[in-house]
Design goal:
By secondary structure, this protein is mostly helical. The chain is built from 21 helices and 3 strands.
């Protein structure tokens, strides 16, 4: 074991460290983190609606929160909150991605954010244009009223033409935009940064105020970068007979990636590497944030939106399940919060179960002291005191359970969710929410979720127990 650890430390960990420090991946990780204020605000609103609108009917079939004074107003306010957060989270992510990428290149961050946002807006739908033949001729009087309204629709006999402008499609501004933003935003901002660093800018005298000078410096690089992305959008539309690049990326890149993420193999691979990296002291969720947030995080946002708005007439968790069964990419069975709800209780690796086993079985004074200090933070999913204080990092006796326990817990949660024994995660819950309560809230107040968490919790207790007992025979450091 020591030989394997030494080999991995020498050859694998330096590579993993370089990947984790790669500036584009760090910028992408920080871009996701930057959207947290919006995603959490919107998720709290959805969570409140889950509790006051969707949970009571499970116990009281005649309950309708939309007809109850005060309750219906809260539901309405939460809907408005969703409109300004999760419904347009793609806009926030575009700006955050551009800002953090520009910061990685040490150029104007504000301009970088605006360039990435503009690169997104260049390629979205600003209104539908439809020509259709009606089943029969519309009466002249009705046609005159419609035509005189100048609302974007005209009727000539049995020919209907709709040409709306200024109607932004929400499906281009929410989580559906993430992959397009990552690609087009990177092209625009990297080009903007390279031009800025090459001093292809407008020079102003030193007497000009810094704020004005900084803004003018960004004009030429931003204009060139945005012309490049505009040409890409335009040429793509010409080649594909009017198809938008964002729709093509969503169908041919995003959806296949999302589909692959739903297999148990992909889920367990990510679970493995999070623990594996942590064992060597590298923050696994941070290194893998581009994957966790870019794929499973996008799936979670889709679930939240369907939970809020429904799917084909079905509301709440029922709507999410219907969307998953439809298989159109509107909702997903396993998402970012699923890991936290069913496997990473107490922090990555589910380490709170180790602390419980130490307090129950360990005879080592040093382990028990760390467990007593770490149990409090562990309740709120903070496990750094255990990782580095026990330690788990580079501790051979705990390598196997630290890898195996979360994979078993993940499998239990995955099977329960895929068999519809518990609702999928439909709410983004702050990571400091204690276990059991987290899974309850994350699944839209599904009482079965804490039961599944308890089963996974118990399984990891059993896995940790023999290794804690084995550690009793080892000398204290």
């Amino acid at each position: 074991m020591n030989g394997l650890t030494a080999w991995l430390e020498k050859y694998f960990i330096p590579v993993a460290g370089k990947i984790g420090a790669q500036k584009h991946l760090v910028a992408l990780r920080d871009a996701f983190i930057g959207t947290l204020p919006l995603t959490m605000a919107g998720s709290i609103a959805v969570m409140i609606n889950a509790i006051i609108r969707d949970l009571p009917p499970a116990f009281f079939p005649d309950y309708d929160g939309n007809t109850i004074p005060v309750i219906k107003e809260i539901i309405g306010v939460d809907g408005v909150m969703w409109n300004g957060t999760l419904a347009v989270v793609g806009i926030a992510f575009a700006f955050s991605w551009g800002y953090n990428l520009a910061r990685a290149y040490k150029v104007n961050e504000l301009a970088g954010g605006m360039v990435a946002l503009a690169a997104l807006l260049q390629g979205i739908s600003f209104g539908p244009s439809i020509t259709a033949t009606l089943a029969k001729k519309v009466p002249d009087s009705a046609a005159k009223i419609i035509n005189d309204a100048q609302a974007g629709a005209t009727i000539d006999g049995d020919q209907l033409q709709i040409g709306l402008w200024g109607w932004l499609k929400l499906g281009h501004l929410d989580a559906n935009a993430y992959f397009t933003i990552m690609i087009m935003g990177a092209i625009a901002v990297i080009l903007f940064a390279k031009l800025t660093l090459a001093n292809i800018t407008i020079k102003l005298p030193d007497s000009v105020p810094p704020a004005v000078s900084t803004a003018f410096t960004a004009i030429l690089p931003a204009m060139i970068a945005l012309y490049v992305t505009a040409i890409i959008h335009y040429v793509f539309g010409k080649i594909t007979n009017g198809q938008l690049l964002i729709d093509w990326i969503q169908k041919n890149i995003a959806e296949p990636f999302m589909g692959l993420s739903q297999g148990i193999g992909a889920v367990l691979i990510v679970t493995f590497f999070v623990s594996f990296l942590w064992f060597f002291g590298i923050h696994g969720p941070n290194v893998l944030a581009p994957v966790l947030e870019g794929i499973w995080g996008q799936g979670q946002l889709k679930n939240i939106n369907v939970f809020q708005n429904g799917f084909e007439g079905k509301k709440g968790a029922e709507g999410v399940l219907a969307a998953i069964d439809a298989g159109k990419g509107d909702a997903y069975m396993w998402v970012r919060g699923s890991f936290d709800s069913f496997a990473w209780f107490g922090g990555s690796g589910g380490t709170i179960t180790l602390l419980i086993m130490i307090l129950l079985l360990s005879k080592r004074a040093d382990y028990r002291a760390v467990a007593k200090l770490g149990i409090g933070p562990g309740i709120f999913n903070i496990n750094e005191p255990v990782m580095f204080g026990l330690p788990i990092v580079l501790n051979p006796i705990f390598f196997i359970p630290f890898i195996v326990a979360p994979m078993v817990a993940t499998t239990i949660g995955y099977v329960a969710t895929s068999l519809h024994l518990v609702n999928p995660v439909v709410v983004a819950v702050p990571w400091v929410v204690p276990p059991f309560l987290m899974s309850f809230l994350a699944t839209g107040a599904d009482w079965r979720a804490p039961v599944v968490t308890l089963v996974a919790f118990a399984a990891t207790l059993v896995i940790w127990a023999p290794f804690v007992l084995a550690a009793n025979s080892m000398e204290e450091d």
